[in-house]
Amino acid sequence: MYTGSARNSQRQRPTTGPLPRGGNRRRTRQPHHPGGILPLLAATGIAVALALLAAHAHAAALSLPLPAAKPVPAQDLDTVFTNLRNWLLGMLTALSTLMLTIGGIRYLIAGGDPGEVQKAKAALKTAAYGYALAVLAPLFVTVLQGIVGGG
After folding, report:
1. Which sign, positive or negative, has the C-alpha torsion 108, 110, 114, 118?
2. Where are the domains of the chain?
3. Closest CA to 81 of 151, 8, 1
4. Using one digit for the tens of pLDDT, what is the confidence trace for 60-78?
5. Model-level pTM?
6. In three state form, how does the secondary structure of 85-110 look?
């Protein structure tokens, strides 16, 4: 029974340490916070930089011009279609790689949230469609070339 004395009103429950005997204080679980997104973005940036450096070194070793180098002027229709195919391949591959990276990062930081996992899966599906179109781009250009009559 509560007597209302000053001694009882000043008593405080312990905030640390073991639970009091028969206590009803609930322990809350601390949320898990991974290292954050900054190390993940830094690692992704380093990986992309190394891949670009390797591609540049490989192209230099083979004495091939880089794709972003000076474009070949269009002398005939075949050159136009070759340039179109190269441009489509480059754009589709770059955008697909970007979507793959975004989807992977979203999946990693989703933390089990079903909505975020679905968004990540959608981005990964988009990347797969982009890569499929990049594989089929030369076929599209060949069909277009046959319709127009070039070559």
Report:
1. negative
2. 75-151
3. 151
4. 655 555 555 566 566 778 8
5. 0.50
6. HHHHHHHHHHHHHHHHHHHHHHHHHC
